[in-house]
């Protein structure tokens, strides 16, 4: 095999895998390749994909964020409560005016950013593992969401729901938001000093410090970004379903986001991340989920297959890094 062909296969393997999966699922079930089903697939995976763009930044710096789903639940409950009708008998907030959707969404995003700032500061200045810090944040945020409301936050205003369930020129707004976040993520990583600093930190944090990079400040920004994406996911999730359940909203979404970033080639050894790879990763998992559901495969078997894919992706990544040493 020529060097050019090997390089092509290496650079595009994940997209070839995606194409192969689409062909297989289309043959296995004729309903898979329909426009309505593919639209359902994209809208179903868009929120997890947005969260994947967040956690990919953390993984790039040898970190992780396990709080994404809980942050989404908390933000969805809080921002959703702010747009409930004042005369609604089951209104979460006993007093206060109903806010316009943009104001409620902004408050939710600011709450997410604040949570991320706290997580990032803890990781940066105490040097405890990101796994522990974000696991603690997960428990705190999920409990806070349940304390805020002991029942689903429902009857959300139509303008609030637009981001999650509206359409523009027939395209689901949730997919448009996903594309916008993908472009922003790509721009940050490729064309900003912050993005280039993250690659340096992931490759060797001590060398990055010596080179004059403010590692602590950048780590804080990373987790602000992670939680901001989780907060946006919470708003979209509430808007899509019309309510936000503090107990179940966003549950295990962080696992799918981490899986998408991992399958997409974001290295847990740090220093390697591609936005296009993350997109391919979330689409691969989406195709698997959607295709197996159409085929009537049990959810447990789907999760087993996803687990095998995640472990396999990490093993392959580790083997590639060993070869480079």
Describe the 3D structure:
The protein is an all-alpha fold and 325 residues long. It has one domain (35-318). The protein is built from 13 helices and two strands; from the N terminus they run ααααααββααααααα. The protein has helices spanning 3-28, 35-60, 68-81, 101-126, 130-148, 158-165, 173-191, 193-203, 205-210, 215-241, 253-263, 275-294, 299-324; strands spanning 167-168, 171-172. A two-stranded antiparallel sheet has the order 1-2. Helix 3 (68-81) runs antiparallel to helix 4 (101-126), helix 4 (101-126) runs antiparallel to helix 10 and helix 11 crosses helix 12 (275-294). It is globular and about 70 Å long. The model has no long low-confidence stretch (mean pLDDT 92). One of its GO terms (cellular component) is plasma membrane. InterPro entries: ABC_transp_permease. Keywords: Cell membrane, Membrane, Transmembrane, Transmembrane helix. This is Methyl-galactoside transport system permease protein/inositol transport system permease protein. It is found in: Cell membrane.
């Amino acid at each position: 095999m020529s060097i050019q062909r090997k390089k092509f296969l290496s650079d595009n393997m994940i997209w070839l895998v995606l194409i192969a999966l689409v062909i297989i699922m289309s043959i296995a079930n004729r309903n898979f390749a329909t426009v309505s089903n593919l639209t359902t697939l994209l809208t179903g995976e868009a929120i997890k994909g947005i969260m994947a763009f967040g956690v990919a930044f953390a993984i790039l710096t040898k970190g992780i964020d396990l709080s994404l789903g809980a942050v989404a639940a908390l933000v969805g409950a809080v921002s959703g409560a702010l747009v409930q009708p004042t005369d609604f008998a089951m209104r979460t907030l006993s007093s206060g005016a109903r806010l316009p959707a943009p104001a409620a969404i902004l408050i939710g995003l600011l709450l997410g950013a604040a949570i991320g700032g706290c997580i990032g500061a803890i990781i940066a200045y105490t040097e405890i593992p990101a796994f522990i810090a974000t696991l603690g944040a997960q428990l705190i945020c999920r409990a806070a969401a349940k304390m805020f409301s002991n029942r689903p936050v429902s009857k959300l205003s139509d303008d609030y729901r637009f981001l999650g369930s509206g359409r523009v020129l027939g395209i689901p707004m949730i997919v448009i938001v996903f594309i916008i976040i993908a472009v922003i993520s790509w721009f940050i990583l490729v064309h900003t000093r912050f993005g280039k600093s993250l690659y340096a930190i992931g490759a060797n944090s001590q060398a990055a410090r010596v080179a004059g990079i403010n590692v602590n400040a950048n780590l804080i920004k990373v987790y602000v970004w992670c939680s901001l994406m989780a907060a946006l996911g919470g708003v979209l999730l509430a808007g899509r379903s019309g309510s936000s359940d503090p107990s179940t909203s966003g549950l295990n979404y962080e696992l799918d986001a981490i899986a998408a970033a991992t399958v997409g080639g974001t290295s847990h050894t740090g220093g390697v991340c591609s936005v296009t790879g993350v997109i391919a990763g979330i689409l691969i998992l989406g195709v698997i989920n959607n295709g197996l559901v159409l085929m009537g495969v049990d959810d447990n078997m789907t999760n087993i297959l996803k687990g095998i894919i995640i472990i396999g992706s990490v093993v392959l990544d580790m083997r590639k890094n060993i070869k480079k040493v």
